[in-house]
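User: As part of a screening pipeline, I want to sanity-check one entry by hand. Below is the sequence and the SMILES for 2-acetamido-2-deoxy-beta-D-glucopyranose. Please return the complex as structure tokens so I can compare it with the automated output.
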Amino acid sequence: MHLQLWQSSLLPLALLNAPLLVSAEPIPVLQQHQKHDLMLSPRARPNAPDGYAPAPVPCPKDKPKLRVAGAVSDRETAWLAKRRKETVAPMTEFLTRANIPGFDAGAYIKKVADGVKDLPNIAIAVSGGGYRALLNGGGFVAAADSRTSGATDKGGIGGLLQSSTYLAGLSGGGWLVSSIYANNFTSVEELRNGKKGSSIWQFDSNIFVGPDLPGILDTPRYWASVAKQVASKKDAGFQTSITDYWGRALSYQLIDAPDGGPSYTFSSIALDEEFSNARTPFPILVADGRAPGTKIISLNSTVYEFNPFEMGSHDPTVFGFAPIEYLASNFSNGVIPSNGKCIRGFDSVSYIFGTSSSLFNAFLLQNISAVEGVPDFLLEAGTGLLEHFDDRDDDIAQYVPNPFLGWNSKTNPNANRIELDLVDGGLDLQNIPLHPLIQPFRNVDVIFAVDSSADTIYSWPNGTALRATYDRSQSAIANGTLFPPVPDEHTFINLGLNSRPTFFGCDSKNFTLKEGQSVPPLVVYIPNAPYSFNSNASTFDPTYADDRRNSIIRNGYEVATQGNGTVDSAWTTCVACAALSRSLERTGTPVPSACTECFTKYCWDGKLDAKASAEYEPKFKLSGVKGANSGAGSVKAAMGTMGGLVIGMIGMMFIL
Ligand SMILES: *[C@@H]1O[C@H](CO)[C@@H](O)[C@H](O)[C@H]1NC(C)=O
Ligand SMILES: *[C@@H]1O[C@H](CO)[C@@H](O)[C@H](O)[C@H]1NC(C)=O
Ligand SMILES: *[C@@H]1O[C@H](CO)[C@@H](O)[C@H](O)[C@H]1NC(C)=O
Ligand SMILES: *[C@@H]1O[C@H](CO)[C@@H](O)[C@H](O)[C@H]1NC(C)=O
Ligand SMILES: *[C@@H]1O[C@H](CO)[C@@H](O)[C@H](O)[C@H]1NC(C)=O
Ligand SMILES: *[C@@H]1O[C@H](CO)[C@@H](O)[C@H](O)[C@H]1NC(C)=O
Ligand SMILES: *[C@@H]1O[C@H](CO)[C@@H](O)[C@H](O)[C@H]1NC(C)=O
Ligand SMILES: *[C@@H]1O[C@H](CO)[C@@H](O)[C@H](O)[C@H]1NC(C)=O
Ligand SMILES: *[C@@H]1O[C@H](CO)[C@@H](O)[C@H](O)[C@H]1NC(C)=O
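Assistant: Here is the complex for your manual check:
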């Protein structure tokens, strides 16, 4: 493992911060850009008090405070009561369309809708893997979204998204989820096409160069604008790091607002009309905690989640949550002191998705020197990285003050530190954000786990992400939270479990439950595989021409629908059966024979084939597609330039 190299790869803050002030003068041309954008698309909720800078605000009557984990928050409970009802109509529609022979889905859902507890509780989890994961995951979400054109036609799975209670993302998957919610729960189709012909997801002009708006915003102005935003946070007295820059820069590609929407906060999603009326699923992002003095992220690392209400951890180490809107306030006694200030605006959407994807900090710095017009301070930062990466212990995403200072000091590794360091959620190998969704009190029945990890030599998944979560469930840090058994990577490849959808944990009787334990969700594993396009772009490939972007999204859509049912005409039915499975069991309803056939076909039956697998080089699944078309920089090319540093990268390149 080369993880250590990554953990130490940040630069001295002084180096980053000192020259920033230089670029803080106003930039008139940018203001034109703002007006232009504002007219195009009005959006909800840029509600931070002072742009990107956090700021003190009057405290609400009930002082914000930490809470003990072990249940969902009161706000989530109240929201869920609305959401579960909102899923009834879309679920009825979807399950009816899925046409399970001999099963009256409408009557069944009507019967279980009242008590709610028997209603299927569906979650979708989108893995990390940079832009590849954003696009492939986006293809799945587009297929599941009834608003996508064609998604509710025969062979489609449209409506699954509207039937879902949770939508979790990690790293590149977190960019997808954030982009959807920061744009008023826009559809992937609209993010791709734009509302008025100008798409939001413009990845042909990469993050180093900045948005392609000739005459409006050039590379130096773009970086100056990013730098100015980050400087405002520093000037307000908050620590800044590369995660701030990276998150702000990405926002220009993900958030359809002037200057990448510096005032958009994660907590503001809770105020969004669609979300607050529970007409969307509940978004969650994931990051890992780093224990002080350690650089290795392992399965023992504390997993943190971010949702519109809270940030914190279910793990027995931290076992607590802070109100996300007031991050950076002083919670050192569990509650903001009577003379203390309430801080708002720290939970910038970009800082949250930047935290979840902090692996890309180093990528940003490595590549930046190749681009003209990048300000010197960032170039120096890049050089600083190369010189110092081995002995530096700078942190990747800092949360200062640590919201959990003094909290659970017996078990919380960071309880005594003013600074909490968080890193990319995939660094513990759990590259699919399953952790928040398997917590027993969330009562999730089924997780559609979209895996765009680059595990194999050709950047396809091999089940490592799922297995990491299974392995973790067997260790003390899981505190008894179960996960379906998952085999080794060779079995995945040898039995083709990574080249087609596979269900894990189908048979709930196969779990031996101890006191206080409950059966985990059924996991529908949806691995990235080539249906119509080689969607195995390398993790650090920053540039996607529109046709390539569209082809990867389309391929993700074909994965999700099994080529609109051309690979398996029963696929829509099988998705419906997976969604229903645990609910049927709870209500003692006989399993329709069509579902039994699905389970025979898609459930992993426990067989192993652990002999060393041959090189995994999958062929296109849809007939009529020929030839290699990836056009992506190959892994080898990606490794070419950076010498020693890249050696350290290799380990991670195959994972995320
Ligand atoms: C957000 O989306 C909803 C549903 O499409 C729409 O009714 C509402 O007007 C949108 N809000 C904004 C501010 O664009
Ligand atoms: C599947 O359906 C979508 C949406 O209608 C369409 O764009 C796509 O071409 C179809 N793919 C196949 C393989 O039929
Ligand atoms: C995790 O912690 C346990 C003790 O709580 C220890 O036995 C185990 O080796 C650790 N695992 C890793 C991967 O560090
Ligand atoms: C661990 O699990 C037990 C039993 O489910 C629960 O009562 C306890 O609160 C959990 N403790 C922690 C610290 O997670
Ligand atoms: C935070 O609040 C505690 C009391 O709850 C106080 O002792 C401490 O000095 C405060 N810290 C800061 C940095 O204001
Ligand atoms: C499977 O994935 C892991 C983690 O990405 C990687 O280290 C391993 O080499 C892969 N094995 C195979 C056979 O693809
Ligand atoms: C059933 O449980 C056993 C014991 O945990 C496990 O080894 C086996 O893989 C499980 N079978 C399936 C199909 O999950
Ligand atoms: C993508 O996958 C194909 C088929 O497995 C392989 O031939 C190609 O080299 C891969 N491309 C990259 C960039 O890994
Ligand atoms: C970024 O770095 C990677 C890995 O070193 C390399 O493959 C890629 O071409 C670089 N991109 C740019 C825009 O310089």
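Points to compare against the pipeline: DSSP finds 23 helices and 15 strands in the chain. Residues 1-44, 384-395, 628-656 have pLDDT under 50 and may be disordered.
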